[in-house]
Protein: methylmalonate-semialdehyde dehydrogenase (CoA acylating)
Organism: Micromonospora polyrhachis
Amino acid sequence: MRTIEHWIGGTSVTGGSGYATVWQPATGQPQAEVALGGRVEVDLAVAAAVKAYGSWGDVSLSRRTKVMFALRDLVERHEDELARLITAEHGKTVEDARGEVIRGREVIEFACGIPQLLKGAYSDQVSTGVDSYSLRTPLGVCVGITPFNFPVMVPMWMHPIAIACGNTFVQKPSERDPSPANFVARLYADAGLPDGVFNVVHGDRGAVDALLDHPDVAAVSFVGSTPIASYVHQRASATGKRVQGLGGAKNHAVVLPDADLPDAARQIAAAAYGSAGQRCMAISAVVAVDPVGDELVTLLARQAAAIVVGPGDQPGSQMGPVVTAQARERVLAAVDGAREAGAAIVVDGSDLRVGGHEDGFFVGPCLLDRVTPTMAAYQQEIFGPVLVVLRARNLDEAIAVINANPYGNGTALFTSGGAAARRFVRGTTIGMIGVNVPVPVPMAYHSFGGWKASLFGDTHAHGTEGVAFYTRGKVVTSRWPEPVETAQPTLHFPTA
Ligand code: NAD
């Protein structure tokens, strides 16, 4: 079987506590084994990154930018290969995977503008003969610990900006779909990035803990589930590192009576079932505001039932499998639990079988109506193709439901009224908001991040907040005395 090794200092490195199986979700068969790195491999990777930082931290902006432009072109040229690699290990459709690669590439494009983003400020003559300027400098070795659901895009929220800012980087990808990270490492090498600037250590908790504890790691970016985000934030902060920990989500779509209901149903179904619901910005809960509930559920059911489920690389498939057998079990248990708790199972994809792929990790779209905030199916992040519908009497009640939820990643409102939209935008305690847009993922030049249990730390990913995260400020105050200086030095605190 194919083995997937670490990429350290510009070369493939084996080693660790053993190997984990990488499954092919569409067939349910093992397809590769990935090395599980531990302290030894982490030490090697961080040492390579420290060594590379010695020179990369001083490389000119023009050269750094040149690498980013070259990487951007390589990612575009290899878009199809990358997308197929994602589909093989994650399961999503190739079209969806291609979208992920494009959204990741947009962050590289943002990083191509790093000279503009790193421009400091200069104040002339802050005091007589004194000038002052500020600049942003890199941190050193930065780490990215990333989830399975976007194996190309989420790491690209991190490493292009970190590296363009002058840092070196160690990525710890998800052990469920590890191959794209190695592919990207080779693209970096082809783009002219010196060895050791971008490294990949595969593994699970052992590799993560070694990275979080390593004294030479300056900053950690994490994206994944809330319990691990919180753990990573606490453990890495305890050793003085800068940390951003992006966590899980339960994203609500509110539908008001003045919305275009067929359009809202189409958009919500796409946001709920795309990538089999395995997106942190997936809509997983609808709050239907009276009296639209019954009509909306009928429309959503029609959309859900029409979705073509099949292998991600098969033309015509709109939704692939979930990532593992355990993920499938979790989804089925959530649907069963909701049934027992009194929810109405309007569309039940639990028994779906895909011809020729009977062992694949498929589960069809599920639509659960009459769900209440006390039910587990509402409280959990199911992270599968399950959409639950709650009812509210008015917009204020819908906003109260959203604000009472511990997560705060994304939300969307469907309406034709500007005043309601404004009230919703201002009133919800959520980081990313869509108005008639179901998946409001910010563009690369804005920043991505939620509130509450969806983010630990306070800096969002990419955009200008990404640049701020991967740099630290320095302010210089300088005075160049004229050749003849007669005044005595004063000992009081300097003022202008
Ligand atoms: P996960 O938390 O299981 O894994 C994320 C990373 O943490 C992986 O690299 C994994 O190897 C590592 N990890 C797992 N268990 C660990 C442990 N006990 N100790 C240390 N490290 C550990 O998440 P996942 O299942 O890969 O991804 C899905 C989750 O990610 C969902 O909750 C989803 O909402 C979230 N997510 C959030 C965002 C966001 O921007 N907020 C984006 C994508 C995904």
Observations:
- The chain has two domains: 2-247+454-476, 251-435.
- Residues 251-435 form a domain with the Aldehyde Dehydrogenase; Chain A, domain 2 fold (CATH 3.40.309.10).
- The chain has a mean pLDDT of 97.
- The first helix runs from residue 39 to 56.
